[in-house]
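Model the whole thing, not chain by chain.
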Amino acid sequence: RKEVEQDPGPFNVPEGATVAFNCTYSNSASQSFFWYRQDCRKEPKLLMSVYSSGNEDGRFTAQLNRASQYISLLIRDSKLSDSATYLCVVNRNNRLAFGKGNQVVVIP
Amino acid sequence: EAQVTQNPRYLITVTGKKLTVTCSQNMNHEYMSWYRQDPGLGLRQIYYSMNVEVTDKGDVPEGYKVSRKEKRNFPLILESPSPNQTSLYFCASSQSAGDSYEQYFGPGTRLTVT
């Protein structure tokens, strides 16, 4: 089983719609969790950290479920500029493991 | 401007010809790391460094070397490149390794080994 698993998609989303996707991780000792955004083979950039209590940043909401070992990302009111690949990242013992990413395509 | 720089950005080389990809950060970060990104495989960590003179293997270290003689620099060395090292490479740095510290990535180096 891969350490971090994501359904690569693509997720074709009408503009204005809501999209959500999950990422599962296999190491229960994982310590911290993040969502990064990557545009078309450019460098990844931090979208948000994921806290146990869940957190929200504008149209983006992240949740962590330690019992089931997954994190989720929800994007509300999708914009064309949200089209990107969203990478799930897990920190375990000072090493980072990346998922393959969820590709989101927002359609006008 | 706070940034991570990598050089070169693009490199085409031949099998066996030693090369070095440089990485430098100006944020006084302790933690630096190298990743490669391949289609269908995602980002995989090659090596990381917790601080000066402290380096450790990531998930795919074979065929690579690193050094951390100064805090700001973390070069990636391919002693004898092979075609399976053709990839997109990213260097990253963060204030520390743990918890919620953001990783800042360089712009990437696209390497082709023929």
